[in-house]
Amino acid sequence: MTLIDRFIVEFDTVLRSVVGGANAQRPTPGSESGANAALDSEQRKHAAGLMRINHVGEVCAQALYQSQKLVARNSEIKEMLNHSGQEEMDHLAWCETRLKELGSHTSYLNPFWYAGSFAIGLAAGLAGDQWSLGFVAETEKQVESHLESHLTKLPEEDHRSRAIVDQMRIDEIEHGQAALHAGGATLPEPIQKIMQAMSKVMTTTAYKI
Description:
Elements: H1 3-18, H2 41-71, H3 75-101, H4 110-126, H5 129-153, H6 159-181, H7 189-206
Helix pairs in contact: 1-2, 2-3, 2-4, 2-5, 2-7, 3-6, 4-5, 5-6
């Protein structure tokens, strides 16, 4: 692709992440389940809050992968980031679809989440591929933990949401391992703690807004 072609593709990714309309390359997990089978209004509201958090996480993932890919030195690492980013786009589409089925909405703060994550990813990328990959690995580790907790919090009857979250968890583990195998460094503990604190703020806010 030409430089203009790549710009159009990346800009389209930004719009689909922030505004909506993400397209998945893989079928939505749990599509054989009824959209809202056996869920009452409170269960739908709670499930929507959790899936909104997951959607925000995928908005952030798109920003992180785009920015880190932009400054990656190694072509193989760029390709790895691109592949992971494409699978994260599936997650984005699945969460968006599920939120619509639950009669809810994506976060109104998505432009803020995207811009902040892009800046963080750019800083990590500029620090060097080793640290950039380490940041990916630590991010995916924390996301995996969040998704595991959501599997315990989602209503047992919400088979569709649970199937989506479980497949996302499997993919995130693979992305984190790929980053480590590519040479990712272990981030200093203070940075890990900062990332955890920022994640807590995001999840608390995204559940409602």
